[in-house]
Each structure stands twice: as structure tokens, then as C-alpha cells.
Amino acid sequence: MSGSGFAQFIPLILIFVIFYFFLIRPQQKKVKEHRVMVQSLKRGDEVITSGGIIGTVDRVLEDDRIELNISDGVKVQIIKNTIQGHLKAAKETKK
Questions:
Q1: pTM, to two decimals
Q2: DSSP 3-state assignment of 80?
């Protein structure tokens, strides 16, 4: 009886393993890559925010904020984690 009880949990264990390798692990990898990208931002980098604003990093502030230059004389402060991507890096890989 105890052997058949364990056999009932084998499909659940397999489903968890499949979810881990196909969903959880790739998401953790993306989060780590995003964290590294945000930490490596410097002045002059062209970035896009999660809201779709494209700008150039003017200065990196000491806390979790960045000042973006989105037009001549227009600067906005945003939270670093709202940076979606690094545009110059994307353009260089297409060449």
C-alpha cells in the first residue's frame, strides 16, 4: 500500500521539475541579466524605459535613480529598475 501511495506523487514531482526547468529557472536568469545590465549603466548610454521613453543617461545618482536626458533641456529622474533595455547594445549586436 505504501508503494502505491508514493507512485501517486510521481506525476506531481515530474510536473514540478518541468516547471522548474522551463519556467522558474529561465525567469531567474533573466532577472539576473537585468540586474547586471542596470548596474552597468553609465553616462551616455541610450536606454528605453518600461513606459517606452527613450533617453540618454545623463547621470547615475547614488540611490536607485538615474537622470535621463529625453530631449534638449528635458531631464527626468527615473528608478533604475524601470530600465527595460540598453539600445546601443541592441544596435551593435544587429551589425
A1: 0.71
A2: helix
